[in-house]
């Protein structure tokens, strides 16, 4: 069932419930008002008949004729009068006695002064009447034909109006839901036009501050991120293809040359060494890509635990100096740094990859192949600096240094793939930390800032 249909039915159902409550309230209020009003009329009629009987000179037979004449045109009130001894002294029509007063009823009237009740469809009132120091019991009974006709008419009109209003409400609901959801229908049409090859398309937005416009803006933001992701992926795949093609082409060329003619043992060894270096280069690239994939996971999917940053730095220091005997790395931890400030929630493997890249990068581009690591703290910020001496990085290159596969003209002199710093930044950001670079006066410093506990 479509949302438009559900909204229309729900709107109609709620309106029907409210309208029912309103109609029932009106009907029962009118019913109660009719009942009270007719009891009041019965009381007035009883008093009038009693006054007429006691205070006028009209004979009883004439009063009977008056009653019978009135019953031909309307439901006349039937009145009976009893004295204190519970003896009947007047009755409009004793042969057709509606109430059939009993001694118990008369005693109740004299005791309570006034009673009223229903007798089948008749309403009955009993009251005490005083005349010349004597007390009498007067009863009056009648059927409220006009009142019941009014209630029946009211009920009929209410039922007819209820169904007519429901139909009108349903039609109005269809119109309003269609009008309210028409922007969604337009969105659906526009979304159907968006494909993998047309991610540049966007939903139309307005200046209205409603939920649908907010939805369109957020959807456009998602498309923007998807488009950037697709472009990055294309760029990523293109660069990977280029990076892998270069060593593969070199290996193929070297092996083809070696197979075309006989060579000396030393020449074969040299060819094998070249191919081995290219293969190692490919393995290094492959490892970098795997680390990059791990760093690109959803943070919720990466396991975090308590990690000692000084221990991770020592492991990176040991690993780098062991693999490259020319590299000289020194680690300096300020005395002001407390043990608990070196402990963070993180992933040890990824942090080691990031520190390895920063140390290797510093030693690689330093003429002396040195890297100075300084660890210090300022309030709740733990700062780790990786400094090397050598040619400064151009300001233009600094702006792009963390982009994937970006390599400046000076960096092309050294072997690399342009993945290390990009990977490092992703890992640092995963740990809610910051990394920045300052390069001036023949000195380059990469600084990582962690928020400590």
What order do the helices and strands come in, and which of them pair?
Blueprint: H1 3-55, H2 60-71, E1 78-82, E2 88-91, H3 103-112, E3 114-119, E4 122-131, E5 134-142, H4 145-192, H5 211-260, H6 265-295, E6 305-308, H7 309-323, E7 328-333, E8 343-346, H8 348-364, E9 370-378, E10 381-389, H9 395-400, H10 420-430, E11 434-440, E12 443-451
Parallel strand pairs: 7-9
Antiparallel strand pairs: 1-2, 1-5, 3-4, 4-5, 6-8, 9-10, 10-12, 11-12
Helix pairs in contact: 1-4, 5-6, 6-10, 7-8, 8-10
Features:
453 residues, alpha+beta, Beta-Lactamase, Helix Hairpins, Heat Shock Protein 90, five-stranded antiparallel beta sheet, five-stranded mixed beta sheet, 10 helices, 12 strands, 56% helix
- Oligomeric state: single chain
Helix percentage range: 55-70%
CATH class of the largest domain: Alpha Beta
Task: Tell how many strands the DSSP assignment holds.
Answer: 12
* Shape annotation: rod-shaped
Give the strand order of the largest sheet, numbering strands 1, 2, ... along the chain: 2-1-5-4-3
Query: How many DSSP H or I helices?
Result: 10
Low-confidence stretches: none
Total separate domains: 3
Structural class: alpha+beta
Gyration radius over CA: 51 Å
Average pLDDT, all residues: 80
CATH level 3 topology of the largest domain:
Heat Shock Protein 90
Question: Helix and strand string, N-terminal first?
Answer: HHEEHEEEHHHEHEEHEEHHEE
CATH architecture of the largest domain: 2-Layer Sandwich
- Name the CATH superfamily assignment of the largest domain: Histidine kinase-like ATPase, C-terminal domain
Q: DSSP strand (E) fraction?
A: 15-25%
- In this structure, how is the largest beta sheet organized? 5 strands, antiparallel
